[in-house]
Amino acid sequence: MDSPETPAPGAADSRRDPAKLAEAAQQTNWHVYRMTPTRTGDMPVALNPEAAASHVQNVIDWRINQLPPEVPLPEYIHDKLPGIYNFVAKVAGVDVDSLPELSAADDHDRHGLHIPMLGHAYIAPHATEGLPEHVEKFYQAMTESTAVHEIAHGVANADPGLTHNTVIMTPQTGGTSYDYVMTEAGGLGKTHFYTKEGTPQTGQTLSFLREGWAETLAMRYMAEQELNGELAPNYPFVYTTAEGEQLPIGPKYVVMCEGMWGVTQTSLAAYAMDMLDECLATINPSSRQLFDIMRDMQHVETQIQAQQELAATLNSLQPGLYKELTTLAYTESDMVKGYKIAQELKTLMVP
Ligand SMILES: [Zn+2]
């Protein structure tokens, strides 16, 4: 009973096969360095491709071993995929074909995941069996928002000129607890610290702004689909932290469907970007929005200029703000920290 329909762009197929994922990752541009002691301190020395090969294989294997178990992609997402891919490609200014494949995974720890090196994104669909139809619809909307968010992360390595993986091998001496520092892909790439044995990552950089960017794109999509809080602008939406603190959040960062609403941790970063934009508009009306600057950081021809613009723009609000925001990690406490920095600036600057 094969269906004759053509597959949606990016829809999961045999690309989930580990051998094919490994092959795709091998084709990426890799830079491998070894930290080597010199008289003036440790210096990264580039390895030639032959010497680098086994280390490249190590990190690819490590990534593939981390993949969560795959489950079928829900039909409601499959039907929406062409629209989602076209929306992300249009807003980000990239080719649909350069965006990551999407599949579904059984992953209780998070809603979704994007692995730049493997060109693959995952969503963990909510279990809705036995729930009333309106609740199911709400969870479907939340999952749809996650799908947009994860595919949006793929914009960072959509430009082949920016797609590379950097691995720096660090000797485990002097108190370091990792063997590799690895940066995956383009202008909003991820940096991981981990060991050859595959010990879970101990850190990432640029998380706060990267999450805010992807979530802003997801919320723009939800607005287009009329699935967010724009429908109820006076409702007091809040994000409740693990400690029970309630943080007010703008209605457009809320997924709203069938009378229910939900908000994710990364919405804090998206809302913070909005608050910072309001501050910028107050002090410099000609300033570009942070989302647009960060979009340009993901294209090779504008990357360097945009990165400098982002630093200068943030530091114009408060000296050192760029460093402060770009060193926040992907943890709830750091997301809350970034939110509070933006909220405080808005209180001070926006009349
Ligand atoms: Zn994310």
Structural commentary:
The structure is a single chain. With 351 residues, the chain is α+β, with helices and mostly antiparallel strands. The protein has 2 domains: 1-204, no CATH class; 206-351, no CATH class. The chain is 42% helix and 17% strand. The chain is built from 10 helices and 13 strands. It has helices spanning 18-27, 49-65, 75-92, 133-153, 207-224, 266-283, 290-296, 303-317, 321-326, 332-349; strands at residues 29-38, 41-46, 70-71, 101-105, 112-115, 120-123, 164-169, 180-184, 190-194, 238-240, 246-248, 255-257, 260-262. Strands 2-1-7-8-9 form a 5-stranded mixed sheet, covered by helices on one side. A hairpin with a 4-residue loop joins strand 5 (112-115) and strand 6 (120-123). The chain is globular, with a radius of gyration of 21 Å. The termini are far apart. Mean pLDDT is 82; it is low at 1-7, 11-15, 173-177 and 198-203. Bound molecules: zinc ion. Residues 149, 153, 211, 214, 266 line the site of zinc ion (ZN).
